[in-house]
Amino acid sequence: MNSVLAKEIGAQHYATQLTGYDEMYANKGKVLPYWEHFMKSIEQIGRDELELRRREAQRLLRENGVTYNIYTDAQSLSRPWKLDPIPLLISSEEWAVIEAGLIQRAELFNLILKDIYGEQSLLKKGLLPVELVYGHEGFLRPCVGTLPDTERQLFLYSANLARGPDGRMWVLDDRTQAPSGAGYALENRSVMTRVLPDLFGESQVHRLAGFFRALRTGLANRSPTSRADSRIVVLTPGPFNETYFEHAYLSSQLGYTLAQGDDLTVRDGRVWLKSVQGLQQVDVILRRVDDSFCDPLELKSISRLGVAGLLEAVRRGNVAVANPLGSSVLENNALLAFLPRLSRHLLGQELLLPSVATWWCGQRRECNFVLENLGRLVIKQIDRASGIHAVFGANLSSQEKSRLRAAILAKPYLYVGQEQVGFSTVPAFVDGQIAPRNAILRNFVVAGEDGYQAMPGGLTRVSPLKDNLVVSNQAGGISKDTWVLADQPDQQVSIWLQPRRDHIVEAINEPLPSRAADNLYWVGRNLERIEAAARLLRTVLQRWREAQDYTEYSDADCLKTLLRALTHVTVTYPGFVKDDPSLLTNPLPELTALIKDAERHGTIPSSIHAFTQSAFSIRDLWSQDTWRSIDDIRRCWRTGSFNEPLEIGALQSKLDDLISAIVAFTGLTSESMTREAGWLMLDGGRRLERCLSLIALLRATVVIKQEESTQYQLLEAVLMTTDSLSIYQRRYRSFVQLPMVLELLVLDQTHPRSLVYQLNQLYDYVKALPRERGKVRISAEEKLVLEAFTKIRLIDIAALTKSQGDSVVYSALEEVLADTSKLMWRTSEMIAKAYFSHAEGPHQLNPTQLEDEL
User: Fold this and answer.
1) Angle 707-710-714 (CA atoms, 0-180°, nearest 5)?
2) From CA 18, how far away is CA 437, in angstroms rounded?
3) I need a labelling partner for 47 at 20 to 30 A (CA). Which of 288, 441, 744, 789 fits?
4) Long-range contacts for 730-738 (Cβ within 8 Å, ≥24 apart)?
5) How confident is the model at residue 844 (pLDDT cuts 50, 70, 90)?
């Protein structure tokens, strides 16, 4: 071992920091053989290079949109997932023991679940206290008799494991409701194979694809129909859930539709997906919503996350739900005290993986033991849904112990006491050094065709601080990849089943949920709002700088008009249209708000937030490249990155970067999205918003009569803002004149930024949108767009720009633009009414105030 490299990275002093069992050293005083090669490789990599690879891992995770929502964090939507570059290594011999124990527990919990909602013989024989089951909120009486007639009703199972001071693996708790973490484990593996590719290949690590293949096959086999194209959806609580990334990630990786409760409906005892193509029957639901919230009709009536009537559809056998509704009854801390006896009774076996010692206070002797030993036990409620976290008795004051004692005595059946287990430590890369940190391993088991199958790996989490026993993502924990080492190279397989050579796979036309269509539409609209605001603001800053350098009255008048136009285009009223001359002579405060105020609607950060939120809500629809471009848009306008005071040149550079990021996103989606309903909604939203933004810009600038020099500057500014100045110069080779500008920006069907081009594209889109079968009449939205298109095509530029008396505006031009704007707003309303879920989030729907201002 190279002592210099070992000292640099901290490995030389690692052993001196150990206070208990360590995964790398065990209790043997030297590095275990299967860790030795890995640590030598890490030392050869060196501290600086390992830090670079850690940063590369975080960059990949950030660009892939991997997040974990911290409920106490106001910015939780963008909380990054943390990954340590040093994995947890598990030998093949030890994994065999862990795997057998996990499968045994899955079998045991499956039998307990079947009995609780079936014959209830365990209750009748006294093997399980009635109060323990019926007093738990996870026991859902309406679910009795609803479990599917399959051998393995518990589809997914996970357990949190930790190694105690004696070197044995202990199960801290079990997860049976909607176990989370498997998707994060898969993403961790994907990143680790990129940042440590050679070391991963040399280590002969078991692959994870087999587990996810079994998951796909198992879900397909649960379908109550015999159709080959059974529709499977992932039911998510939505983007504010702590593990929403995983819901979107798994649905994308497995090829399923991601749905929220409002995307589904029950009719005639069947579950249907509400999509822009109409209702589509759902056969299997992989739920990530707590079971009691899944059906407001029979379970929690206050729930807005579930589907009314879902339980009845399950009862009739028309839909399969994994895990079954009611399975949270197994997430009962008190059950741990009875598992050894239940294992002997149901399986005829001793537990291979023991649970942490648990005493249920619903029994008098056990309750007395807990009360007498409060100071050295961990006290928990039997129900995780209570929201009360573990209480470490050793940390309580005398007064706090008295209050806890009183609470236990009042309702003893709701509490358990558990032995405080010291976790083993694992090597972690902390502040440039390898240091020991407490760790918990979460493993996963799925019901496959031939029995339960464990993921050969898992999600390891380590505490951020030394000797901290609270290890969770909500508490700021750091994740690790888990490498189960094989005796020989593992076979490379795909998550997707490979078809037979003679079998031709037919494409499946996946429906677009109404909520996803809604979000795609608003991604397009918000993206265009950002671009329109950024382009006009860039022009305003340029004119402001020029107005400071020159004293011509035309420069000042042009700037004032552009400032008012900025308010109209961004809809940030009253803004610069307010009757306050000081705003126009000193625009910096209002411009600063447009640049930095995320709470004010219409500002650039507000629109970016709305864009990101809509994009995040349909995370499963984006490719990794597209998601990286979304992240680029968000990152290049972080409000905390602006220097004070604001400097015009720096702002213009930031606006350039923002516009470039928007163009990259537009290009990626244009080149990678199929021209189906999703594209129609995304680009249709962009086109409609571009119509509105362009009309607002024209009405606030060229519609108003100006002095010749001022008008010239305004026309040039409008062409710059719409990225049309070079086209104008090449085409007309003359001074900028109003008729030619209007011809280019309003009537030119070949110019991608003209008004008629947007209307033409929009008309093609609304014609192509799905409609009721057999309906041949033109839709309301088609009529509106066609009317707007016809109105613009029939205009006479010369007549529109003809002065009429003493009017300060070109009245005919103003009238046609105002009418077209109203038609676009009505079109948006008709599209929303026809295609979007009625339970939609807040969006700005009000038109601009130009009618009142001009």
Assistant:
1) 130
2) 9
3) 441
4) 736/712, 738/702, 738/711, 738/801
5) very low
Q: What is the 3-state secondary structure (H, E, C) of 489-511?
A: CCCCCCCCCCCCCCCCCCCCCCC
150: nearest Cα among 185, 111, 122, 198: 111
Range 67-86 average pLDDT: 70
Task: Report the mean per-residue pLDDT for the chain.
Answer: 89
- DSSP tag of 331: -
- For the chain, the structural domain boundaries read 357-419, 514-853
Q: What is the pLDDT of residue 845?
A: 47
Q: Is 257 helix (H, G, I), strand (E, B) or coil?
A: strand
User: Is the peptide bond between 645 and the residue preceding it cis, with omega within 30 degrees of 0?
Assistant: yes
pLDDT at residue 503, as a whole number: 52
Which 8-state DSSP code applies to residue 332? B
Report the pLDDT value the prediction gives residue 413, as an integer from 0 to 100: 94
Contact 480, 460 (CB under 8 A): yes
Tokens of 18: 């150990």
Gap between the Cα atoms of 273 and 17, Å rounded: 56
* DSSP-derived 3-state class of residue 164: coil
Decide if 160 contacts 176 (C-beta within 8 A): no
Please give the Cα distance from 743 to 746 (Å, whole number). 6
- Angle formed by the axes of helices 209-221 and 182-195, nearest 10°: 150
Q: Are 450 and 217 in contact (CB under 8 A)?
A: no
Torsion of CA 30, 31, 32, 38, to 10 degrees: -170
With beta carbons less than 8 A apart as the criterion, state whether 434 and 14 touch.
Answer: yes
Question: How would you class 743 by CB atoms within 10 Å of its CB: exposed for 0-12, middle for 13-18, buried for 19 or more?
Answer: middle
**Distance separating alpha carbons of residues 488 and 466, to the nearest angstrom:** 36
3-state secondary structure 524-582: HHHHHHHHHHHHHHHHHHHHHHHHHHCCCHHHHHHHHHHHHHHHHHHCCCCHHHCCCHH
pLDDT band per the 50, 70, 90 thresholds, residue 664: very high
Q: pLDDT per residue over 188-247, tens digit each?
A: 999 999 999 999 999 999 999 999 999 999 999 999 987 777 899 999 999 888 899 999
Global pTM reads 0.87
Dihedral of alpha carbons 132, 134, 136, 138, sign: positive
Residue burial 210-229, b: 16+ Cβ < 10 Å; e: rest: bbbbbbbebbeebbbeeeee
C-beta of residue 627 within 8 angstroms of C-beta of residue 65: yes
Cα–Cα distance for residue pair 758/766, rounded to 1 Å: 12
- Closest by CA to 68, choosing from 254, 323, 247, 234, is 247
pLDDT digits (tens, 9 = 90+) for 299-354: 999 999 999 999 999 999 999 999 999 999 999 999 999 999 999 999 999 999 99
Architecture field, domain 357-419: 2-Layer Sandwich (3.30)
CB under 8 Å to 129, separation ≥6 — which residues?
360, 362, 363
H or E element: which one contains 48? Answer: helix 47-63
H or E element, residue 392: strand 391-392
Confidence of residue 841 (pLDDT cuts 50, 70, 90): very low
How far is the C-alpha of 614 from the C-alpha of 305, rounded, in Å? 18
Whether residue 696 contacts residue 569, with contact meaning beta carbons closer than 8 Å, is answered with yes
Distance CA 276, CA 768 (A): 12
Phi, psi of 326 (to 5 degrees): 105, -5
Res 854: pLDDT: 39
The widest CA-to-CA distance across the chain, in whole angstroms, is: 100
Buried b (16+ CB within 10 A) or exposed e, 261-289: bbbbbbeeebbbbbbbbeebebbbbbbbb
Four-residue CA torsion sign, 810, 814, 817, 820 = negative
**pLDDT the model gives residue 849:** 46
